[in-house]
Amino acid sequence: MASKSNTNGAVAVSLPSREGNTNTEPPTDDDRTLIDPDVIRDIVIGLSDGLTVPFALAAGLSSLGTSRLVVAGGIAELIAGAISMGIGGFLASSAERDHYHYMRRHISARVQRSCVGEMEREVCAVLVPVGVDEKACQAVTKCLRDAEFDPEVSANGSSSDEEAQLLRWKDQVGLTPFLLKFGEGMEEISIRRVYSSALTIGLGYLVGGIIPLIPYFFVPQAHVALVYSCIVTGIVLLIFGAVKSRVTGAGQGVGGYIWGAVSTLLVGGTAAAAAFALVAWLEDS
């Protein structure tokens, strides 16, 4: 990345072109393509709860009566749970987005009123632990301050597409974005991400929750359907755990995939066994 000064003394940063770039990364044995961790998090939250909670509820209701009762209670819980999980994901992402904007305003105000020495100390606090010396930190601070207070951008009132793009770019450079991202560890969540998170969690819960109920649609005896439900859900939990280890990068080799599958099965099985035992105990008492 190269930088040069304009006539007003501000620093203009030019990004390197991607044309002609070649992939020089050395080949590795691990050829996995990892999915966005935020998407994986939402899928895991939705599917894991969907495979566990309705399964535990169905197991508990199986000790009370017929499959019809289990299906009615399971579907009611499934719909309510999917809506609740989706709304919960929406509110959580919205709260995180609001907190980001609050911190951005707070840090921007602090940058505006702080002296150069104070900003150098904050930049050093971020860069020195990763091996950057103090002299380089001072140079970085100067570049970031020049980008933060670029007079050309702040004084230009044009509404052309080029100027609008320049203003959007300015929001991503300078001391404020630097301290937000590397000092506070925060990145902005887009409004699209807020809605997609809610939809992903809700649909994940719905898809995961319908699986344990499938046998109850075809087998009238609840205790018999419970056996099939345990088998089907157990297989799905094993597959889900292994796939989760694969796409998140947690699994290293066959042992990692097996541990991911078994641990996921243990969580779902423990919840279902606890629900079944509790309902059976209440019925006997």
TrEMBL record:
<dbReference type="InterPro" id="IPR008217">
    <property type="entry name" value="Ccc1_fam"/>
</dbReference>
<feature type="transmembrane region" description="Helical">
    <location>
        <begin position="194"/>
        <end position="219"/>
    </location>
</feature>
<keyword id="KW-0472">Membrane</keyword>
<feature type="region of interest" description="Disordered">
    <location>
        <begin position="1"/>
        <end position="34"/>
    </location>
</feature>
<protein>
    <submittedName>
        <fullName>Ccc1 family</fullName>
    </submittedName>
</protein>
<dbReference type="GO" id="GO:0012505">
    <property type="term" value="C:endomembrane system"/>
</dbReference>
<dbReference type="GO" id="GO:0005384">
    <property type="term" value="F:manganese ion transmembrane transporter activity"/>
</dbReference>
<keyword id="KW-0812">Transmembrane</keyword>
<comment type="similarity">
    <text>Belongs to the CCC1 family.</text>
</comment>
<feature type="transmembrane region" description="Helical">
    <location>
        <begin position="69"/>
        <end position="95"/>
    </location>
</feature>
<dbReference type="Pfam" id="PF01988">
    <property type="entry name" value="VIT1"/>
</dbReference>
<feature type="transmembrane region" description="Helical">
    <location>
        <begin position="225"/>
        <end position="243"/>
    </location>
</feature>
<keyword id="KW-1133">Transmembrane helix</keyword>
<dbReference type="GO" id="GO:0030026">
    <property type="term" value="P:intracellular manganese ion homeostasis"/>
</dbReference>
<feature type="transmembrane region" description="Helical">
    <location>
        <begin position="255"/>
        <end position="282"/>
    </location>
</feature>
